[in-house]
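Quick log. Single chain, no ligands specified.
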Amino acid sequence: MRAPIRTTEPLLRRNFLRGRPGDPVRRREFLETLGCGALGLGLLGGAALPGRLPAGSAPGSSEFAGWLWIGRRPEKTAAEWRALFSRLGQAGFRGVLVGGQFDAPIADAAHAAGLEYHRWMWILNRPGDTWARENHPEWYAVSRAGDSTIEAPPYVEYYRWVCPTREPVRQHLRQLIGEAAREPAVDGIHLDYIRYCDVILPRGLWKKYGLVQNRELPQFDFCYCPSCRGQFKDRTGRDPAELPDPPADAEWIRFRWDAVTRVVTELAEVSRGAGKAISAAVFATPTLARRLVRQAWDEWPVDRVFPMMYHPAYDEGVPWIGESIREGVEALRGSGTELNAGLYLSALDPPVLAEAIRMARVEEACGFSLFDLNALTDERLEAVENTLWEIRATDRGLSEHHRQAGVRRHLLAG
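-> predicted structure:
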């Protein structure tokens, strides 16, 4: 079990996490409080302090910061995008994850505000890939029940999954990522739907779809296409379609985790070959991702992951976000991959949003991302800005305390 952050001043940590719901921090008052807290810690000696650097961070790495998903773009002029991104930059955001086709005016507006512009791209779920559907129907995933997603998409009409074990599929994806990454104004590639179809939905969605998924049902269990069956049989001597209990077979489970990881690895090589960062939107925790969507994201060679900690989908409260961050951070420790907590804005009013952001910092996330722009009200943005200012002031104050303590130790040793 992961040890909690230790501190010789519990009140400082509690106040940092709790904040003042509904009441923005007064900057002068906060600095005075911080000064007293840091002084008290200094008098108590070299005990561990609250607010450690995020796991995987190194000296000179970026500050705890925000990201914003931009999916369905609202109609805005170039001037309006510049004004929006200027506001995000002032509030402490690092970048935007923008869906759809590359948009030069949006990229220019982001860069003018000091923000990174990353292309947000759907990978294995490809409802808009008309060329693939018309020319390569064999690419599409087949369920244990024998249905292809090109003919019988599960759950919703736009679930049109392609199979990751097919080399022509991966070649197609490498080409698409390469084209996106070669655009000079693109700072990074952000992968989404980089997984199998949900074999089990998050529990909070069962009622919506009229399902009880306390076991893996054949119509949602993928993929049993000829490519998957042949490759697995070549490796193990067994046909997955003939296994006595496919959901319980450890080799079949690992085969599919590895199939997705291979796609990620190949796309990361393409993106980095173009000098661009690569990240991925993933399910909330390594445990849930493996079980629900065959996604072993803590094994991926990416720069950042953005676990989608959308608590209403899991019938969970806000504290669950902190627990999920903790699991992800521990799984990634030492890997060099940053974790940014994905927060579902529509379910977070401003005081609770501030609490979730503080929680992300305390649990050692490197930052957070908000889904999405259309739910980012002025009130929520103000809460983000106040909370980020508070966190950064705390971090800088603690860093200065450590620096002064080092000077004192040096003088005493001299």
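Confidence is low (pLDDT under 50) at residues 1-61.
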